[in-house]
Amino acid sequence: MSIVVFEKITEVRTWSERIGASDLSVGFVPTMGALHEGHISLIDRAKGECDRVIVSIFVNPTQFNNSSDLANYPRTYDRDLKLLTDAGCDVLFFPSVAEIYPKPEKRHWDFGLLSNSLEGFFRPGHFDGMLTVVYKLLEIVRPQRAYFGEKDFQQLSLIRAMVQQEQIPVEIVGCPIIRESDGLAMSSRNMRLTPDERQQALAINRVLYYILTAIDQSDPSELSVRGFELLTKSAGLRPEYFTIVNARTFEPLATWPTNDDSVALVAAYVGEIRLIDNMVIKKKALSES
Ligand code: AMP
Description:
By secondary structure, the chain is α/β, with parallel strands linked by helices. The chain is built from 13 helices and 9 strands.
């Protein structure tokens, strides 16, 4: 079956209501396009769990705190449409900026460390823009389930918090990070890396894996410092942060928690491109060590 493309909110609402009236479930995968296997993994998961799957492509201007990042964000519509068709996606929602924002709009949410630390600190306004658009998209599509990647770990945690606070009737499904065969986390921004930068970027996941091998011998505060130092010494990399926090509360950790998972989170520039990655350290892995 071929994919249907909607550009209007009313078309999506009508479609979603019709699916709901037939007692079928809708799975929703919001994206900013320039699709890769990470996005496709979310769609595959949604297809396995829902009767119909809708993907949105919307490069949301209000979540970019850097205008050149927005201007240079890759846009590959024809390729995306083919990938979505091949993946068996039912509907693509491809709205204009005016369709989503008839007037300027940015709500503010405060979830303490979850919204104010790390990405919240280094990208002021980013999370308010992201949550505003996710809130609006969920309200338009009204899916039973919405799928997000753990690649954006802090984003996923915030979306869960926002959905709970706003009492939106949707199940948020988190999906594992998909990596290239050499370990680099897939990202639309990777296509902007030069071949040299692409090689230099590998230090990010190398340091994350190294830290994982050292959790038995060191506490998280030591490893946070060591991870940051290793990134600083890596050719071509300018890290903004490397830190290990409680995966639920985002509190920086002095010692390994016994009741919660931990997560090592990193953001680093490679040339002009800002990349993020992370690795969850399960409490089970810790208690076994
Ligand atoms: P984006 O288009 O970058 O806004 O991403 C759309 C969704 O795909 C978000 O939920 C991301 O977390 C998810 N995503 C992006 N890259 C990956 C990846 N490498 N593995 C898994 N999910 C990803």
